[in-house]
Amino acid sequence: MTQDVISGGQSIHAPDNLKTLLQTILQQALTVNDGKVADYIPALAEVKSDYCALTVATLDGQVTSVGDATATFSIQSISKIFGLMLAMERMSDSLWERVQMEPSGQPFNSIVQLEWERGIPRNPMINAGAILVSDVLVSHYSASKSAVLSMVRGLCNRDTVCVDSRVHESEKDHGARNAALAYLMKSFGNIESDVEEVLDHYFWQCALTMSTEDLARSFAFLANRGKCPRSGNQITSHRDAQRINALLSTSGMYDQSGQFAFTVGLPAKSGVGGGIVAIVPDYGVIAAWSPPLNSFGNSARGMAMIRNLANQLGLSVY
Amino acid sequence: MTQDVISGGQSIHAPDNLKTLLQTILQQALTVNDGKVADYIPALAEVKSDYCALTVATLDGQVTSVGDATATFSIQSISKIFGLMLAMERMSDSLWERVQMEPSGQPFNSIVQLEWERGIPRNPMINAGAILVSDVLVSHYSASKSAVLSMVRGLCNRDTVCVDSRVHESEKDHGARNAALAYLMKSFGNIESDVEEVLDHYFWQCALTMSTEDLARSFAFLANRGKCPRSGNQITSHRDAQRINALLSTSGMYDQSGQFAFTVGLPAKSGVGGGIVAIVPDYGVIAAWSPPLNSFGNSARGMAMIRNLANQLGLSVY
Amino acid sequence: MTQDVISGGQSIHAPDNLKTLLQTILQQALTVNDGKVADYIPALAEVKSDYCALTVATLDGQVTSVGDATATFSIQSISKIFGLMLAMERMSDSLWERVQMEPSGQPFNSIVQLEWERGIPRNPMINAGAILVSDVLVSHYSASKSAVLSMVRGLCNRDTVCVDSRVHESEKDHGARNAALAYLMKSFGNIESDVEEVLDHYFWQCALTMSTEDLARSFAFLANRGKCPRSGNQITSHRDAQRINALLSTSGMYDQSGQFAFTVGLPAKSGVGGGIVAIVPDYGVIAAWSPPLNSFGNSARGMAMIRNLANQLGLSVY
Amino acid sequence: MTQDVISGGQSIHAPDNLKTLLQTILQQALTVNDGKVADYIPALAEVKSDYCALTVATLDGQVTSVGDATATFSIQSISKIFGLMLAMERMSDSLWERVQMEPSGQPFNSIVQLEWERGIPRNPMINAGAILVSDVLVSHYSASKSAVLSMVRGLCNRDTVCVDSRVHESEKDHGARNAALAYLMKSFGNIESDVEEVLDHYFWQCALTMSTEDLARSFAFLANRGKCPRSGNQITSHRDAQRINALLSTSGMYDQSGQFAFTVGLPAKSGVGGGIVAIVPDYGVIAAWSPPLNSFGNSARGMAMIRNLANQLGLSVY
């Protein structure tokens, strides 16, 4: 038995037993075996490929999970949302003079495009954009890491969220391309602080470890017009929540963002640790995790799980 | 006095007198004077720059207009939606082997990207993609122009919709770059029919002339889960309507699509004739027209009018 | 026994029996089997891969050949020199406002670079540059093909030089990429005549058929300060002969020009028919032919033969 | 009165009084006022724009100079030849697996091309290539700076040649783009040593200060088949001298190399300090200096002086 709820302007087919639906979807996803765990640093390459988790947090406060939903993993690029939130708060509209808001049409680590755009990244969801955001944080916060950590712990209501220092160090050791992006932006005058310090912040925030339950709780405010449904705190304005969702819709899934909009229709962000979060305005957040990545750097099973769930519940914002 | 309606998951602040609101927005837009009428062909360059129109068609069948809303103009790239609809119907999923669904991150007439992508356009909303779609129509319909015209006339319920033959001829005379795109795709084996015939269809559909009222009526099905609210005909499946809206959201406004999503938050398509249509799922369609274009090729006043209306009514899908 | 002659500022180790040396070099070249006959048009793909010819024409009028040196083949891009000669004569310095003289650093048919350079080809030895030159000829000669044919027949002293009409037609049928280059130049206003006519001239001159003896005789003036050693006619000024040699040195061997300068050190031009001509200032011309091409589009055996001969005789201009 | 000498395969019109000719050419050059002194670092921007020097060192040991020919200046990219000489000596042919020998067709500091070529620079005369060469020196010499300095002092026979430490430090402070190039190569695995150390060597060698007389003497071996005409030492093999000259011919004058070959016809290398050296095989070396640069980064007066001298003496190798 199901009941209809109104969300995204559409009646969502909400099952009596969401958990059963999630379980079915997770089982189907486990048959997907065509991805490859990120191996550019040893600390990520060692992660077991059979982890799989799916969590839905709805705005009424319910959190429904299946699989390894409390196991923590490296959130990697999902952290770009956290950095962006703080930078938007601190810089307001002037932020957008230093980073654009356009889809890139290029791989996430493209240096070619950064050169064409004279050191102005296309958006804050590609690496160059997130490094630019890290420069803003390092330049405008006395303790940029603490600022991020404090915000994240508050959002997911878990004070033990921390960074995997081995991943952090490993990223720095293998971060030559990101260093190239940062130095190129500096050569165009678009990095204010010391490049090494900026990169250190960037790699640090990529190394945050969270579970799908942590992520689903953290981003509930984006589905709730900027207000955290648990605490009632207005995290961002409704307008800024919509803006962040817009950025995620056009640029959140690397160079597969268009396909994700076409087949799923939700604002979302992925990370090479295998995590994906998808925002369903006025309904809730879906968080998925499974380490093997497709050729675009998105979790193969995570994509499949969110697509199935969104299609079955009719969640597309379009 | 206003009343609240539910749309896009959000209560839309629907004014008693929508016409008064539109009138105010149109007056404000007329103070915007920083665009430039398209001048790459004489037939477009001659259009008076002070035309301005704004129409809202809601799903209950009401059409509210201010300004030159029954004057017809060259719809140009807005016609890409019509072409795409027929190609999706004829080709189904195999269409997406010949054109991608990713934002381009490049100007609409980029030949560089088409070369990188080995003749596979990034999406059907850039010129290369629409030329590819024209090849599909020319190759799969015995009379591709008639097929488009018949569909368009039916959608907007006006049997006198036609093509401006002077614009059509003028486009052909100045179409060297589009010819370059077509021949490059042919060199990669991605054009089946004769290039001249394909370009003729493409230039022909760009030269369709319609009013904002015509456009608002035509695309109402995209806001109505694929069904035409006037005739009750299911024009496309709900799924395909969502897919088209997704493409418009990531790629409909040329290289300003990300900014439009960020500031407006609606699927939309513009043309260099100065027209813009924006889809509000489960609410209706906004159509705007004013010839002067900003540097991205989008109507400067049209952008301003739709942004103001969307923000005041809270229409963002995000 | 050998004698020393002075050429290129260096004593050239000229063997008593040049023919014997050429024979040895040709035999060694026949053991090279790693190329692939051009197959983009059937008429070229059918050419037997075991043809091999080597000719040296010295300024004293001697022509020494081994192998299939009187068999004719499609000279393809070698014809770019003939076109350039006529265009330089007709346009003088103003030619260089429409085509640059810089190495391209890109494949010979790059459309990306042409876009960056706003329709101005990097040099007359890449396809775009030669198409531009063809536009000059079509626009400035009442009968551009006759002008080329007459000049070529005079240079090689053979009135039966002609075009392989099957190759000519076949090039046109498979010329989509060159059409893309031409239309892109036209879109930038850098093509004056009708694109179809320009391409027809270009494909026609590529289809000229000549033997290595024809080629060696034809280009002797480039080694002789502009004067044809046979007729005594001043074909170009000394300055223009040096300029053409300079272009061949930086841009004559496709994207292997730098390597050819490094390993051989002579101005040279190749064609995908398998022919190569190399100019030795104040000494003579080397012409080689063998159809199988390396990955850069240069004759694999032709490269080997010219390199061996140049190294053994000490012919580098550097 | 003049006498004819044989060089480059051509009789060179050697004036009785070379000094008078040089004086005339220098006076003409001083009327050229359209360049701009390099200003990317303060230490270069401060150099007086009216310095001008011209030196010819012939293989008989004569050194003829006019203007500020003993004043020292920052040789900048001319140092790339010194680095390359040591790297060729140490690495032999394996060097060319890590750097190509093709003209770049791009600005000297292009990062776009380096990305396309997967971290393999197009040639050792662009910045990326010279940084790669610096990595070779840092990795293969226990004291790479000493090795360079010792070689340079020996070549020009002046033990006081040194580095301008203010320029060296200043380059490091403004070296973000070069750092981007180095880190990008490292990300492709093509830098072995520590990036900071590699860049330090690179910036150090760019800061070498020499006079036109120093430079003319230093590179005489390149005109003399590898042998220093003063000491009689074989600096490189004849083959390697020709190879270096070939690289200078196709890639020595930044993105004006093709034009320099076309109008002058000599292997040459320029630096943003305003120096240029040109090699005349079997004749000698021309060195020119004047700080104001044209838009390509080449000394405007230096180009004019070398072109005039080469044309008047008929020095083109082609």
UniProtKB/TrEMBL annotation, chains A, B, C, D:
Keyword annotations from UniProtKB, A to Z: Acetylation, Hydrolase
Subunit and partners: Homotetramer.
Stated family: Belongs to the glutaminase family.
Enzyme class per UniProt: hydrolase
Binding site for substrate: 77, 127, 171, 178, 202, 254, 272
E.C. no: 3.5.1.2
Keyword Hydrolase: yes
Keyword Acetylation in annotation: yes
Gene Ontology terms: biological process: glutamate biosynthetic process; L-glutamine catabolic process
Family annotation (SUPFAM superfamilies): beta-lactamase/transpeptidase-like
Reaction it catalyzes: L-glutamine + H2O = L-glutamate + NH4(+)
Domain of life: Bacteria
InterPro entries: Beta-lactam/transpept-like (IPR012338), Glutaminase (IPR015868), Sc_DH/Rdtase_CS (IPR020904)
PROSITE patterns: ADH_SHORT
Designated gene of the protein: glsA
Organism from which the protein derives: Pseudidiomarina homiensis
Single GO term (MF): glutaminase activity
Name by which UniProt lists this protein: Glutaminase
